[in-house]
Amino acid sequence: MPVKGESRSVTANARRAQILTATIETIAELGYGQASFARIAERAGLSSTRLISYHFAGKDELISALIADVYADMGRFMAERMADCADARDALATYIRSVVAYIAAHRAQMQALMSVFLGYRSESGASSYDADSEREVLGHLQGILRAGQESGAFRPFDTFVMAATVQRSIDGLPFLLRTAPDLDLEAYAEELAELFDRATRSAP
Question: Please, where in the chain does CATH 1.10.10.60 lie?
Answer without folding.
Answer: 1-56
